[in-house]
Amino acid sequence: MAPAEHFAAPPGWEWWILAYFFFGGLSGGSYAIGTLLRLVGTAADQRAARIAFIASFLALLPCPIFLIADLGQPLRFINMLFDASSGGLAFKPWSPMSLGSWALLGFGLFSFVSFLGAVAESGWHAADPIARILRGTVGAVWNVIGTGLGFFVCGYTGVLLAVSNQPVWSDGWPLGGMFLASALSGSAALILLLAHWRRGVDAGTELRLATADRNFVMLEAILIVKKP
Question: What's the CA gap between 114 and 131, in Å, rounded?
Fold first, then answer.
């Protein structure tokens, strides 16, 4: 069988999209690490979990700005969510752009609520009702769903590149996993940095985060090597 030929024009991405990849990866990865610390971590790990949820939301804030700036016309982003002709939602599961927009919106909701719970636990009592709701089973389910959406935000752009007909990236099946591993390793490093800066995180927690960071970097390297 003859190799596939590439006919698509270059995507024309500016640095806005590269910044979206970076900050979106940090946001989704930080949320996932916060969930792991919250669900299977020790009591001493909970401070780092709060840092992770706060970092997740703050890293997510510029992402819609980058996407809208790349579109050139802000109203185009609204058209990706709402159908002006029918007045309903413009959800198109067959469209990667539509799926990505709705996943970002959904993850933003989960990240924001978890951010409020984290800052409440850190001493901002105005959000105490949110923190109470997120305790126990409800909080665990919330975090798991939010992590799934965060993983989608981290990895779907890599999958899009892998299934495109652009030279170099086409047919690179590990690319989505590489994006996800990169997001997790960068997020672990970010949380470690913030934990060291805050000087209140348990030494055992820092050791576990450092170990996780090394493992994520190793996974990323393996996926890079597997890239055809």
Answer: 8
